[in-house]
Write a structure and sequence with these properties.
The chain is mostly helical. It contains 9 helices and no strands.
């Protein structure tokens, strides 16, 4: 399930989007079962990897509430703090993105700010760029434009530093 979710995350953002959306549609019951199993005592980190990887899928299918429900349950698990930081960050970014799409800007900002705090002690510019991109989009919608520009310029600088032209 982890492998399918990870391959799907890459493919949904690329040229095989329609093929992979259909494949993930077919696999969704298994992927949800795997996330639920992981929360019930299985490998919580694997459940978070699956949930984070499905972020774009849930977005493309406008299944924001389902994605949010799954990700919140994974992140609220008592053992969530034991999951590697990068996996938690990916889950927080996916959750922040989905709540942003639901126009719940405060909740989205809180999740992304938590991800940013987790990244402070890591040298992970690509993940930081992703977090800042989402924060900049939210800022552009809710903050005065001069404040939003500060966030957007910070995101731009980190994206440029990692060579991410799309970001």
């Amino acid at each position: 399930c982890v492998g399918i979710a990870r391959r799907g995350a890459v493919a949904v953002a690329g040229g095989d989007q329609e093929l992979w959306l259909r494949r993930l549609d077919a696999e969704l019951p298994n992927l949800v079962a795997a996330m639920e199993w992981s929360r019930a005592g299985g490998a919580l980190a694997d459940g978070m990897v699956i949930g984070a990887a499905l972020g774009r899928y849930w977005s493309a299918r406008a299944a924001y509430r389902e994605g949010r429900r799954q990700l919140e349950a994974l992140l609220a698990h008592p053992a969530a703090g034991e999951v590697p930081v990068t996996i938690r960050v990916d889950a927080l970014v996916a959750l922040g993105s989905l709540t942003h799409l639901m126009c719940e800007y405060r909740s989205a900002s809180d999740r992304l700010e938590e991800a940013r705090r987790l990244l402070e002690d890591l040298d992970d510019a690509p993940r930081l760029a992703q977090v800042l991109n989402h924060m900049a989009w939210i800022a552009a919608q809710v903050d005065p434009l001069d404040e939003a520009e500060v966030t957007a310029r910070e995101a731009l600088a980190v994206n440029e530093s990692v060579g991410d032209a799309r970001g």
